[in-house]
Write a sequence for this structure.
């Protein structure tokens, strides 16, 4: 259902998709804001905890070398979170969980620490903003996007720095979402 709302900007309180157009002073100098509001159901999160078996996932996706690296990551994440591994979606091995709420109102659950196999690379999911960023150049051979740390093998990385990045990421997430 689409509604047309004519109001002043200070009176808009509807939570929804709002496409606004401020018109120049027309028709006697009255300026209005036209907003099209519609209720849009939020899409369901694709990355959710599943009952899939972590070992079966690793055996089906990892080559021999990746499997060894995945076991090292599993030991590290278990040590840091004190949680067992669980599958999140079809391809993420996660430890612990937290609930989040974005400014948009979207809510969900995600793992505190996680990794996945992406082709020939492994990826560790991190929140690396702020104080952790200076550690990245010391980490070793990797590629970092907003929240994904890609690398080919653990032997290319300084494990103590990786551990500190994961610890910092967990602290940031807990601080932000409780």
């Amino acid at each position: 259902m689409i509604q047309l709302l004519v109001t002043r900007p200070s009176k808009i309180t509807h939570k929804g998709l709002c496409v606004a157009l401020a018109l120049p002073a027309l028709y006697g100098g009255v300026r209005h804001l036209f907003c099209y509001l519609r209720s849009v159901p939020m899409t369901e999160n694709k990355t959710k905890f599943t009952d899939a078996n972590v070992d079966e996932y690793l055996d089906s996706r990892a080559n021999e070398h990746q499997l060894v690296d995945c076991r090292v990551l599993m030991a590290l994440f278990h040590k840091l979170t004190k949680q067992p591994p669980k599958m999140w979606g079809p391809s993420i091995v996660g430890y612990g969980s937290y609930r989040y709420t974005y400014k948009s109102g979207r809510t969900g659950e995600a793992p505190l620490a996680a990794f996945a196999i992406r082709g020939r690379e492994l990826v560790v999911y991190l929140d690396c903003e702020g104080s952790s960023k200076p550690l990245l150049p010391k980490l070793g051979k990797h590629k970092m996007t907003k929240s994904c740390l890609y690398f080919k093998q653990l032997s290319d990385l300084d494990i103590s720095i990786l551990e500190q990045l994961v610890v910092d990421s967990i602290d940031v997430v807990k601080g932000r979402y409780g």
Summary: Residues 54-177 form a domain with the Aspartate Aminotransferase, domain 1 fold (CATH 3.90.1150.200).
